[in-house]
Design brief:
Length: 116
């Protein structure tokens, strides 16, 4: 009977998602580490304490972590992916990022003007 014919089964493979073996950008570092751990973006987001959309945006290089989010990123990666600072400004920025502080917090600590 012609109406009883079944289509042959279709085999589907998971799409290979590529990531750089030698990451250069924060997005590449995050994607590589997540893949090494075998995590979904949702699972990585839970570990990082952010939303899945945030991880997607970081991995697609649409946004970058703010200072308060950078410490969990360093913990997730196991290292700081930013280049070694060479100038005083870069060293201050690296320290601020590592501590997870805002510019306003640093200014208050250093005795700058207080916000109203």
């Amino acid at each position: 009977m012609p109406f009883c014919r079944q289509k042959p089964p279709t085999l589907k493979a998971l799409r290979a998602e590529h990531y750089s073996e030698n990451p250069q950008t924060l997005s590449e570092h995050l994607k590589k580490r997540r893949k090494e751990l075998g995590l979904l973006q949702r699972e990585a987001a839970e570990l990082l304490g952010v939303s899945t959309d945030t991880v997607v945006n970081w991995e697609n290089d649409k946004t970058k972590p703010v200072a308060a989010q950078f410490r969990p990123v360093v913990a997730f990666l196991g290292y700081d992916p930013t280049p070694e600072p060479t100038t005083l400004a870069e060293r201050l920025e690296a320290k601020r990022r590592l501590l997870g502080t805002t510019f306003a917090q640093v200014a208050r600590y250093l005795g700058g003007t207080r916000a109203p």
